[in-house]
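Notebook B, p. 112. Complex prediction, attempt 2.
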Amino acid sequence: MEDITIRFLDDFSKDEVDSPILIEGLPGIGHVGKLVAEHIIHELGAKKVAEIHSIYFPPQVIIEENSVIRLANNEIYFYRDDILQALFLVGDFQSTSNEGHYLLADQYLKIAEEFGVNRIYTLGGFGVGHLVEEPRVLAAVNRVDLKEQAEEAGATFDNGEPTGGIIGAAGLLLGLSAYHDIEGICLMGETSGYLVDPKSATSLLKVLSNLIGISIDATTLAERGVEMERMVQKLIEGEQAMRDEELRYIG
Amino acid sequence: MEDITIRFLDDFSKDEVDSPILIEGLPGIGHVGKLVAEHIIHELGAKKVAEIHSIYFPPQVIIEENSVIRLANNEIYFYRDDILQALFLVGDFQSTSNEGHYLLADQYLKIAEEFGVNRIYTLGGFGVGHLVEEPRVLAAVNRVDLKEQAEEAGATFDNGEPTGGIIGAAGLLLGLSAYHDIEGICLMGETSGYLVDPKSATSLLKVLSNLIGISIDATTLAERGVEMERMVQKLIEGEQAMRDEELRYIG
Amino acid sequence: MEDITIRFLDDFSKDEVDSPILIEGLPGIGHVGKLVAEHIIHELGAKKVAEIHSIYFPPQVIIEENSVIRLANNEIYFYRDDILQALFLVGDFQSTSNEGHYLLADQYLKIAEEFGVNRIYTLGGFGVGHLVEEPRVLAAVNRVDLKEQAEEAGATFDNGEPTGGIIGAAGLLLGLSAYHDIEGICLMGETSGYLVDPKSATSLLKVLSNLIGISIDATTLAERGVEMERMVQKLIEGEQAMRDEELRYIG
Amino acid sequence: MEDITIRFLDDFSKDEVDSPILIEGLPGIGHVGKLVAEHIIHELGAKKVAEIHSIYFPPQVIIEENSVIRLANNEIYFYRDDILQALFLVGDFQSTSNEGHYLLADQYLKIAEEFGVNRIYTLGGFGVGHLVEEPRVLAAVNRVDLKEQAEEAGATFDNGEPTGGIIGAAGLLLGLSAYHDIEGICLMGETSGYLVDPKSATSLLKVLSNLIGISIDATTLAERGVEMERMVQKLIEGEQAMRDEELRYIG
């Protein structure tokens, strides 16, 4: 067993792919990046072309709804039409070890190079510790001349925020790709950091759509956002009710 | 020293083995899998054919009752009669590291392939956080067409439960074997998760017996279950007595 | 840099060594093993013959009293007279990782084999959680026929105690040596587990002296034991005094 | 991807370097070593000659003020004039794992050997747990004959302090260099251990300047020290005010 195994599916021909962009949306803060990448895959009908297994993922299988298991993995999807050609990197987990983060990112970049990727978008969340009414989309780049495009698309640059840097695949892919002459833009949706956040994902999707020049229907994502807000509202009301209840007991 | 060392015992001839099933019962939740596998080994008189040592096990020796030590290990047993031919994977520990889980599972599958195994049963517990009166046996499979057999044998499929997936050898063996054309069924006895649970093991044994087509006397396992229940009952009564005592002090 | 580096000192000729015993006394519970091994080295005037460095030790240097630093290490000493020929394995630390424990023990056994060692004594403490008036010396062996000798020398065998097994070098050296036809006896001095315990070490030294057939002056070790007891006594009295003081405040 | 990658910058010619000293100032207690090394680099205008990336660093990118990211790294700077020729080792992080500490230190020493370094200064803090009015500079050496120089330069040797040894790069570089015939002096500025400490760095800088025979303007470092003290003073006053406030509520 290799430490990292990449299996391309049999019905995939690498010849279909010619210098696509790469969009990474692995699990992370608020699952913002994951929500966006999986939403685009779903809306465009991108097809799965590879599965990635690794000893750096948790030693775990996922049970699908039909009770059939599958190894925890990361997956690559591909989409191509006249306007857009894109690879998507999504999956169940990121690495469980520091070293694994680097080694996985390095493999992902090898794939990117093999297909002639010259731009990577990495997507994530930017945790601010409180609910955000109108989530901004922060950006960071691996070359200064990319800032203008990102700003025009609606992203914000905020004096080196997040000051703690960017951890995991979204950061490393950008950092390492600079040494392979691949441009990289990281988009981070503002989010509380406590909940899966489709609202923040909707904001991020808008900026990314502008950048990649296609329009993606955000309806289902927005709906999940509204639903989530309703749920949060109920949680808050429930807590308030509990507190009132307690006051009644005391008073 | 290899990272994983497999020593086949001298009196074992690999030629005896021809496409057996493999039953895994390593330590885990409620030790349900371990209890079942070791019970079958004992009842059938399966013989030990290999010892597995690894730097991924705890750095520890076990002291046997005669004060002779032995390295912490996993072991393989073999049984063959006219009806059943089976390898058993049992042992003291699972891996102490995430990576080790994968590397050990990979080695176990290499052994399985060497002997022509085409079906694996992995056994475990499914922790529910409370005592269970009539423990169900949940199942998961690595190919959808295995569900019918498992259900007929008395296993339950419950909408992708456990939602947290299956961790460790029981999960990985199933997940990895799918890439080696080996069928896999995981059986998980419902259990509180707090105690070694022979009662859950008895339920699991019944389902497994149906699947492998032999009848195993469950008496000693059932007796240990009854004994364990008596012990739990005493613990509960003891706690109740303590609480009553406290009330007397207060009241 | 090798993961484990063994440097034999220039003034040491391997030809001096011919089938010695190996005595291991690395840091552990109550530092009992370390105290005994270093005491014997000191009393006999054994000389240092090798230094062992490893990435599995803490990334740390020790500052000697003259403010000169040295890498954390393990060391091998050698002693030979007409009655006894022995290698000693002592040092600052054991491995910081599970895997490192195995890999270090494996290297130690390679050295043992190189010198024709056919018996290993591993020394340690057996923590019982309370102060012990007359510490017993528990033993475990890697071959059942070694028990008689150990008992005659004053060691106790107690139904597979310690039930938790033996962790680290003292255990692994015994467990692994069984596969190299090397006899192994582990001696464990009973100790509270809270303090460095020269008293327990004195008991252990007596048993080991009987086993290796030489008499080692235990005076300095016994004195440190008496001193330690006095210190503990003061601690207890101090605590008692504090409690009395508190009662006075309350009362 | 190598586990450790060293990239020398294109405009750097190794021929410029001929037996320099090496000054290490990586992050550590009070960031004393880092402050000193980076201050000297800045004052002298030393130029960056290499970047070091490693899977042993945190899997993280740093966001610069212009929102351009860069991989977490260590860096080597070089300075040469008529009096001084020096390499500087500075950076964002030390290793995240014990093993990585050794492997990184080993690589740093390979670089040192390549350039003919025969003396290393490692800089750090010595945490004492309370604010220090006049921070001493403790020293440790890897050869006893280096003590006199260090003392003459103003360093203090204090009976094997710090008794806990020296952890990380500052310790390992000294310990490992002894095996490469490289002299090593570790200077540790006394510091509380709770705060970045430019005052302690100023003391250390003075001793180091004496040792390397050049005068470095300490003004900006001293100013940061004064500023930090003012900040600490405010924190203390704020806390005092809060306590007074509380007393008012109670009283």
